[in-house]
Amino acid sequence: MMYSHFLFILFSVTIWPAIDGIIAPLTENSQSSSSWIHPFDTSNYGRLQLSNGLALTPQMGSALSLPWHVFTWNSWNFFACNINETVIKETADALISTGLADLGYRYVNIDDCWSSILRNSKIEGEAHGVFTCQVRPGSLFHEEDDAESFASWGVDYLKYDNCFNLGIKPENRYPPMRDALNSTGRAIFYSICEWGVDDPALWADKVGNSWRTTDDITDTWESMTAIADINDKWASYAGPGGWNDPDMLEVGNGGMDFSEYRSHFSIWALMKDEIHSPDMNLIKNLVRLQDGIHQIGIENLNP
Predict the structure, then answer these.
(1) Which residue among 35, 120, 126, 235 has its CA within the 20 to 30 Å range from the CA of 278?
(2) Coiled-coil stretches, from where to where (predicted)?
(3) Cβ(131)–Cβ(161) under 8 Å?
């Protein structure tokens, strides 16, 4: 079913019962030295980051404050706009049948193009240019209404792109949605996606739970390694509550061979990013490569 009321760029639903309510904010005592290891430079970590209780570990870790591994799958890099209810349900079923859900892959993130082209009639007259990247109705100037809709649908994760921004600087464009999400009373991971243009690692720690540091990835060794190098610049800014986002994995999409995908997965495990791959069995074979790294929470490619 395609919704006509509101649109946001990406939403996530769990394939296990959701946990409702805002989780208690982080405190200085919640990150004791005995439970969190800082082997590399963490000098630029936000003191409490967004403090909404989310992202104690990254998207490739846990979107919620949970004691087990919770990972995410995203539709965009393989399906792009070619999505429908069947595709999403089959993906959720595949996460279960391949055993990936048991390993922690319990979030199915639906990217752009899931909504209808227009909002419903009661919102006619919205400003021109307020669209998603694929020209669906966007949430700019509709933050409160849309956040309430997301919360009512049981959404756990919002990726908010910066296309058609009407010239509003990201530092001003993103806080209203943060406030709207927090006001719903539901814990929703807030993923900022302005592609690193305004160096969000310098300002987004009090706004979102993650922020894109690079342009979009493509399924090539050159793109993957270039993005890893760019993202590494911002390693010291990432930590519990707010993480750098070098874009999604391309594992299984066909542009690299198995050894290159293995390197790609391992590097992204170090950098803490979210997963995308249509090849569930390949991911199952790779997932244990990052398992030991996950709890450390490091984000530095030059130890």
Answers:
(1) 235
(2) none
(3) no
- Token pair for residue 139? 């949430």
Is there a catalytic annotation at residue 179? no
> Is this structure's pTM higher than 0.70?
yes
C-beta of residue 63 within 8 angstroms of C-beta of residue 54: yes
Phi, psi of 106 (to 5 degrees): -120, 5
Exactly one of 20, 179, 216, 291 is catalytic; name it. Answer: 216
CA distances from 9 to 137, 140, 161, 182, 192 (A): 10, 11, 6, 18, 10
pLDDT digits over 207-260, tens only? 999 999 999 999 999 999 999 999 999 988 888 888 899 998 898 899 999 999
**145 labelled catalytic:** no
User: Which residue in 245, 231, 239 sits closest to 274, CA to CA?
Assistant: 245
Determine the Cα–Cα distance for residues 162 and 147; give it in Å rounded to an integer: 17
φ and ψ at residue 186, rounded to 5 degrees:
-110, 140
47 by Cβ neighbours in 10 Å (0-12 / 13-18 / 19+) ranks as exposed
Which among 161, 205, 245, 273 is annotated as catalytic? Answer: 161
